[in-house]
Amino acid sequence: MDRSGAAPPYLRIVGEIKRRVEAGELRAGDRVPSTRQVAEQWGVAPATAAKALNTLRQEGVVVAISRVGTVVAESAPRSFPPPRVPGAPRRRERRQPAPSAAPDGKRERMVRTAIAIADAQGFDAVSIRSVAAALGIPTMSLYGHVRAKEELAALMADTAFGELELPAMPPAGWRARLELAARLQWRLYLRHPWLPRLVSLTHPQPMPNMLRYGDWGMGTLRELAIEPDAGRFVWWAVCNYVRGTATNLEPQAESERHTGLSTGDWYSAHLPRFRAGMPSGALPTRPASPGDQSAFDLTGFFESGLQLLLDGVAVLIGRQRLS
Questions:
Q1: 3-class SS of residue 157
Q2: Domains along the sequence of the chain with CATH
Q3: How far is CA 105 from CA 5, 99, 108, 123, 283, in A?
Q4: Which listed residue, of 112, 159, 211, 244, carries a Cα 20 to 30 Å from 265's Cα?
Q5: Predicted confidence (pLDDT) per residue in 146-159, tens digit
C-alpha cells in the first residue's frame, strides 16, 4: 500500500480520463486511448494501463465495442467524486483546468515538427514521443494539444493540404481544370510521400483545408451539364486515382533509402531476372543505363494514366449530353 497518500498510477489515469469526460473533451461515443496508448501517454506498464481501463468499464464510464475499441459510454456520468485511495485520508482535491480547446502556436509547431519528421523518415517514425524529443520538451506536455497519434495525423494531413495554392481563376474547360486539380494534388504528394495513407475515400476527414480543396475541385463539375451523382463520381475517381498512384511514393522513398538504388538502377539490376520470368517479350530487351529513369517514371505513369481517365470522363459527358 502507498502510505504517502498519493494515488496509485492506475487511479491517476482513471481520474484524468474522468476529468476529460466531465470537461466535455471526451463525449459519448468518443474513443478513449487504448491500453497501448495509455501505457505510452502515462509512461506505465501495459498491466497498469489495462487495470485503469478495466476500472473505468466497471464504473460504467466507458464500454468496449468489438472492432471499434473502448469508447465513452452513453450513460457515463458527467461529474465524478474525487478518487478514493485506500488508506489515504480524505482531502479536497483541486480540479485542474481543462486544456484550451483553441489551437495555439504550440500545437502548430508540434504539427509542423511531425510533418518534418515524416518527410525525412516516413510516417511510421512519427509519434508523440518523437515529436516531443525533436522539440526538446516532455512527452506528456503535448497531450494537452492532441490526444493521440490519430488526431495528430489528421492535423498533419490538413496542414499539408493548406499548402495548396488554389487559383481564384482556374483555366477554362473542364479537362484543363481537372488536370490542374490532379496535378496540384500530385505535387503535394511528391512533397509529402506519407500523405496519401492519411487520405481516405471511405472515411474522409472533415478538415478545413481538405474541404476547401474538395469544394474548389468539385466546382468544375457543377458547371457541367451532367447528373450530379455522375459529377461526384468523376471527382472521386480523379482524386482516388491520384491518391492511389501516390501510395507508391513512400515505399519508393523507403526502398531508395534502404537499397541506395533509384528506380532506374533497380530495374537495371533486376531486368534479366524479370525477363527470365516473363518470356512473353513484353519487357524491354535491354536494361536502362545507370541513373536512367526511363525504365519506370512514376510521374510519367501518373500523367499517362490521368489522360486515360479523362478520356473516359469525356465519353461519359458526351453520353449524358446526348441522352
A1: helix
A2: 9-72 (1.10.10.10), 105-161 (1.10.10.60), 163-323 (1.10.357.10)
A3: 37, 14, 5, 22, 53
A4: 244
A5: 878 888 999 999 99
